[in-house]
Design a protein that fits this description.
The complex is a heterodimer. By secondary structure, chain A is of the alpha/beta class. Chain A contains eight helices and seven strands. In chain A, β6, α5 and β7 form a beta-alpha-beta unit. By secondary structure, chain B is mainly alpha-helical. Chain B has a domain of 206 residues. In chain B, 69% of the residues lie in helices and 0% in strands. Chain B is built from eleven helices and no strands. In chain B, α5 packs parallel to α11 and α9 packs across α10. The longest helix of chain B is centred in the middle third of the chain and has 32 residues. The chains are: A alpha/beta, B mainly alpha. At the A-B interface, α2 and β4 of A face α2 of B.
């Protein structure tokens, strides 16, 4: 663990000494819980429809696939007309696109970003690398199966898939959400220990709390 | 004091109309900006869907009491601004709670939401939020100066602090509007208007391409939905003041919609033509170009 994350005594500017424990002070360690939908079905259906028509993507590109997302904002493909937008902060995002290969170093950041997103949230695996490693199948430093570490709702296969494939993927994701099957956040909460064990198996310098919302 | 309770449902009706108009208008302006960039842009009803979705998020977290109150202050700033100035001149139903000194209160409410936001964003503990809000306050303060000068000039011109009386003095043909009787004050106010609408070239505070995404970095779910509600109401409420002070007010709803849209379009037009300013550039711009015009408008009166 890094020295700045250790529990230690600090002397303040007014001369008072106090104890600092960064992992406890900066983060919350409460594990995620399964969150049921609205009690009345028609309300939940309305919410699911709204969620499907207003997909906000976290602006976080993990691999070479990130370059395929940019054309979607431009006049040629213009994903905004389908209710798809990019948000710069995980708090406001609903969809996390793992765009291509995911190195172990990035996986750590991806997990933190995913956990800061608010439920319900969705994950798309973009490109073959997220399915079976793709061309990085024998790399020592990338993960091979994204589904072991984060609950994936949808894969878009290819190396690389073109922006049109992404647009088609959004339409499929909309169908999944509208059918009430986009419950990745609850799946993550229900199988929390399994996901954490998998993540810790590959991330050796684990210097953050188990869950940080 | 004799209070007419029937004013309350009427004011709520105004709020309802303005809320829906604001949501549609914001989307339309975004669509126009997208068209300039040769995109189709969002559907006109997109804002409604975003709002439902954000209210329907299952989880939300808090960073403390002020974090809760930030969006609430912001929304009450927008709603208060709307409720204390008359929407339609001469209408019993849509004069809202306007009274003799409402111009001063309106000036205060314009700033109120930003201050609430500063407290809320400060408590969220995110460095981007703190940086964003200090930039925002600096810029809004600089933009507010010429507007305040213009308001003083108009108040001196008509010798009153009541918005209703100012509108009344402008009736009888468009040559009676302040824009023709006191053009310098209106120029200063319209330059200040650009700075407070959070559109380019003055949107460095909220622009996602800059320090992400400024004050609302930590806001999500229903907090964000409250702020989106305010994003629909506040611009219209602010434009209503501009319309009443400078462009003769409105007597019927279609006139109201048209005038508000045209004034909003002014900031959208400037926004798609000019690139974004940095904060210190925009402050310098307001102090060099807008404030002297405002001072001049008071001096020559």
């Amino acid at each position: 663990m890094k020295p700045e994350l250790m529990k230690r005594m600090v002397k303040g500017p007014d001369g008072l000494e106090f104890e600092v424990e960064p992992l406890r002070d900066y983060y919350c360690e409460a594990a995620p819980t399964v969150m049921p939908g609205a009690y009345i079905k028609i309300v939940e259906d309305l919410f699911n429809w709204a969620r499907s028509e207003s997909i906000w993507i976290l602006g976080f590109g993990t691999g070479c696939g990130a370059i395929e997302m940019r054309p979607l904002m431009t006049p040629r493909f213009d994903a905004y007309r389908y209710g798809v937008q990019w948000r710069p902060t995980p708090r406001q995002a609903n969809l996390f696109i793992i765009s291509g290969y995911l190195s172990v170093k990035t996986l750590k950041r991806a997990i933190r970003s995913y956990e800061q997103m608010q439920s319900p949230k969705y994950v798309i695996g973009l490109g073959s690398c997220t399915i079976n490693g793709g061309m990085y199948w024998d790399s020592y430093n990338t993960i091979k199966r994204l589904d072991d570490y984060l609950p994936v709702d949808l894969y878009i296969a290819g190396c690389m898939p073109r922006p049109e494939a992404l647009l088609a993927g959004f339409e499929d994701l909309k169908k999944i959400i509208r059918a009430g099957k986009g419950e990745g956040a609850n799946q993550y909460a229900a199988n929390f220990d399994w996901y954490k064990a998998n993540q810790k198996k590959v991330i050796h310098d684990w210097d953050m709390p188990d869950y940080n919302w | 004091m004799d209070f007419d309770w029937m004013k309350v449902p009427y004011a709520l009706l105004t709020l309802f109309i303005v809320f829906n108009f604001g949501l549609l208008q914001t989307a339309l302006i975004q669509k126009i900006a997208a068209r300039v960039g040769r995109r189709h842009g969002i559907p006109v009803w997109q804002n409604y869907i975003d709002l439902i979705k954000n209210y329907g998020q299952r989880s939300s977290i808090t960073h403390g009491v002020m974090f809760y109150l930030g969006p609430v202050f912001r929304l009450s700033g927008g709603v208060g601004l709307l409720l204390f100035v008359p929407s339609l001149y001469g209408s019993e139903m849509f004069s809202n709670f306007s009274f003799a000194g409402d111009l001063i209160l309106a000036l205060y409410f314009v700033f109120f939401g930003t201050l609430g936001m500063a407290l809320g964003a400060g408590e969220s503990g995110h460095p981007h939020a703190a940086i964003g809000v200090s930039r925002g306050l600096a810029q809004v303060t600089a933009a507010e100066l010429p507007f305040a000068l213009a308001v003083f000039s108009v108040a001196l011109q008509y010798q009153t602090l009541s918005v209703t009386e100012i509108v009344a003095a402008q009736q009888g043909g468009f040559l009676n509007w302040t824009v023709f009787t006191n053009p310098l004050a209106v120029t200063a106010a319209m330059l200040s208007f650009l700075g407070s609408m959070m559109r380019p070239p003055f949107d460095v505070v909220l622009a996602p391409q800059e320090i992400p995404i400024g004050p609302p970095t930590e806001y999500h779910s229903s907090y964000l939905a409250l702020m989106q509600t305010n994003r629909a109401i506040f611009p219209v409420a602010k434009i209503v003041i501009y319309m009443n002070l400078f462009f003769g007010g409105a007597t019927i709803w279609p006139e109201f919609f048209l005038k508000v849209f045209c004034i909003y379009l002014w900031s959208a037009f400037v926004g798609v033509v000019f690139p974004r300013f940095r904060v210190e550039q925009s402050i310098r711009w307001f102090l060099i170009w807008a404030v002297p015009i405002g001072v001049l408008s008071i001096l020559i009166l």
